[in-house]
Design goal:
about 70 residues, mainly alpha
Length: about 70
């Protein structure tokens, strides 16, 4: 069958969508709960830190010579 540029191509999926069993969902939920509990413990045990002192703001960059000044010299 010859399709025109205005025809729409449709793709059908012959297999039904994947459905996870209740046991699979419970295992995944338990694993996620374990992970989040562990991450909470890591955050609670983290040390408090102070940021480093800020760099001086009075640093002045010397001006760069312009291209016209380089040709004149």
């Amino acid at each position: 069958m010859l399709m025109k540029d205005t025809d729409q191509l449709e793709i059908g999926l012959s297999t039904p969508p994947c459905r996870r069993s209740r046991a699979t969902r419970q295992v995944r939920a338990a694993r996620a709960q374990w992970w989040f509990q562990r991450m909470h413990r890591v955050v609670e045990a983290a040390m408090e830190w102070q940021p480093a002192a800020a760099a001086p703001t009075s640093v002045v960059q010397p001006p760069l010579p312009l291209l016209s000044e380089q040709k004149a010299a």
